[in-house]
Amino acid sequence: MTLPIGATAPDFEAETTEGKIKFHDWIGNSWALLFSHPKDFTPVCTTELGALAKLKPEFDKRGVKLMGLSVDPVDRHSKWSEDIKETQGAAPNYPMIGDTDFNVSKLYGMLPASTSGDPLTRTPADNQTVRNVFVIGPDKKIKLVLVYPMTTGRNFQEILRAIDSLQLTAKHRVATPADWTQGEDVIIAGSVSNDEAKTIYPQGWKEPKPYIRIVPQPK
C-alpha cells in the first residue's frame, strides 16, 4: 500500500552513489523528490534520469533535493550513468540509492514485505511497482505521490508545476485551479472565512460562485 499524503516519510539509511546517507538528515530543511526505478539499464528510466539531470537547476532554484532509487547495486548505477550521459546528454548529478536489500522499496510500499533474494536475478517486470515519485516537505511529510507504469515516461514539467503549487499553498492560504502555472490567479482556501479574506485581500476578489473566490497569486 502506497504511503498516503500527509504521512511522515519513513526515515532510513542507505548506500548511494554519493556515499551513505540517513534520509531525514539528508533532507535537512529542504524539500525532497524521491523517485524510483524498477531496474538499471532500462530504456524509459534512462530517458528520465537524463531529463532530470538537465532540469536539476530548476529543482535547485526551488530548494528541492533529488534522490533516485533502484534495487540494483550502486556500482551498476555508476555504469548506467555512463550510458545515460552518452544517450541523453547528461549523467545523473544527484545521488542514487542502491536498494539491494529492498528496504526502502518496502518501507515506501513499492514492493511487498515478503520480497527477498538477489536483486540482480529480478527482472524489470518483477519490480514494475517501483515507479513512484514522492515529494516530501521540510517537515518530512509526504506532500504528493505519483505512480507511473513502466511504459510511460514521467512528465517532469508537471512535477515542477505541482511543486510550485505545493510551495505556494504551504506559504499562503490558497489553492491552485486546474492547469494552474506560476503567476496565474489562485483560489482562496475554503478554510478562510469571508471576514478573514477581507483583511488578507482588501482589494476584494472575483466570485463566480460563493465557494469560488479568485485572487491574484500572492507574492
From TrEMBL:
<keyword id="KW-0575">Peroxidase</keyword>
<dbReference type="InterPro" id="IPR036249">
    <property type="entry name" value="Thioredoxin-like_sf"/>
</dbReference>
<comment type="similarity">
    <text>Belongs to the peroxiredoxin family. Prx6 subfamily.</text>
</comment>
<dbReference type="InterPro" id="IPR024706">
    <property type="entry name" value="Peroxiredoxin_AhpC-typ"/>
</dbReference>
<dbReference type="Pfam" id="PF10417">
    <property type="entry name" value="1-cysPrx_C"/>
</dbReference>
<dbReference type="InterPro" id="IPR019479">
    <property type="entry name" value="Peroxiredoxin_C"/>
</dbReference>
<dbReference type="GO" id="GO:0051920">
    <property type="term" value="F:peroxiredoxin activity"/>
</dbReference>
<keyword id="KW-0676">Redox-active center</keyword>
<dbReference type="InterPro" id="IPR013766">
    <property type="entry name" value="Thioredoxin_domain"/>
</dbReference>
<dbReference type="Pfam" id="PF00578">
    <property type="entry name" value="AhpC-TSA"/>
</dbReference>
<keyword id="KW-0049">Antioxidant</keyword>
<dbReference type="InterPro" id="IPR000866">
    <property type="entry name" value="AhpC/TSA"/>
</dbReference>
<keyword id="KW-0560">Oxidoreductase</keyword>
<feature type="active site" description="Cysteine sulfenic acid (-SOH) intermediate; for peroxidase activity">
    <location>
        <position position="45"/>
    </location>
</feature>
<dbReference type="GO" id="GO:0045454">
    <property type="term" value="P:cell redox homeostasis"/>
</dbReference>
<dbReference type="GO" id="GO:0005829">
    <property type="term" value="C:cytosol"/>
</dbReference>
<protein>
    <submittedName>
        <fullName>Anti-oxidant protein</fullName>
    </submittedName>
</protein>
<dbReference type="InterPro" id="IPR045020">
    <property type="entry name" value="PRX_1cys"/>
</dbReference>
<feature type="domain" description="Thioredoxin">
    <location>
        <begin position="3"/>
        <end position="168"/>
    </location>
</feature>
<comment type="similarity">
    <text>Belongs to the peroxiredoxin family. AhpC/Prx1 subfamily.</text>
</comment>
